[in-house]
From TrEMBL:
This is Glyoxylase-like metal-dependent hydrolase (Beta-lactamase superfamily II). InterPro entries: Metallo-B-lactamas (IPR001279), NDM-1-like (IPR050855), RibonucZ/Hydroxyglut_hydro (IPR036866). SUPFAM superfamilies: Metallo-hydrolase/oxidoreductase. The lineage of its organism: Bacteria, Bacillati, Actinomycetota, Actinomycetes, Streptosporangiales. It comes from Actinocorallia herbida. Keywords: Hydrolase.
Amino acid sequence: MKGKVTVISKGPVTVHSYQAPADGLEVTTQLIETPKRIIAIDGQYKLEYADEVVAYAKGLGKPIDRLIISHAHPDHFLGAARFGAPIFALRETRAAIAAMADLKDPSGREVRIDDVLPTETVILGTDLVDGIPLSFEHLHGGEIADSLIIALPEHRILIAQVVSNRVHLWVADRDFAGWKANIERLVNRRYETILPGHGEPTDRTVWRELYDYLDVAGDFAGYDGATYKAKMIERFPGWTGVEIIDIANALHPAP
C-alpha cells in the first residue's frame, strides 16, 4: 500500500483514516466502520489510491453502504465511481460537480463527470446508523462555498474534510473571513478527534494552527503566486502539500 491508514477505535465504531501519498495531495478518505457496514467519506484524487481504499475496505469484510462527498473539489471525488456504492452529497455540491466538464486524475486517467455525480442528497441533522448517531452539518464559505462536515457526537469525532493538518491550505477563493468563521463555529464543541481532509488525524490543537496559518496567508494574499508560495514555505517549513499552492497558482495566475 502506498497510502497509509490510521485506525481509531471507540467502542462499536472504528474509523479508518486513509491518507494518500504526496502525488495524491495527501487527501484522505475516512471509512466509518459500524457493526454491519462501512460509510466512506470522500473518493480520492488519484484513481490508484481510490482503488487502494476500496481494497482496504473490502478487507474489513463489510459492505460499503455509501460514499459521501464532502465538497466539490476534484481531489475529493475523482475516484468516487471506484467505490461501487451510492454517492451522497449536499444538493449544492451535486450542482457544482454537475457543472464541470470531464476531468483527468493526476496520472492522466480520464474521469467522466456523469460517473462521479452524486445521485443521493444528504439529509442534514442526525441519522442513526446501526444505532450510532451521525450528525451532518452544512458549512458555508472558507475553502469552498458549500461543504459538509460529519460528526459522531457520542464518540467526540469530527470529520471535517475542508480542514488540513499541517498541509498547506487551499485559499484560492481568498475567503479568509469565511474560514475563520467556520473555525469559530467549531472550536468550542467537544470534539476530541479531528479527521481532516488532508493529513493525519489530529486533535483540538488544529484550530489554533489553522487560525495562525490563515492570519499569515491573509497578510501575503496580495502578492504574486510565486512570492506567496515562497513566503508560506518560509513561515511554515514543516507543512507539506506545496503542490496545493502550485495548483491554486496555476488556476489563478497573477494579473
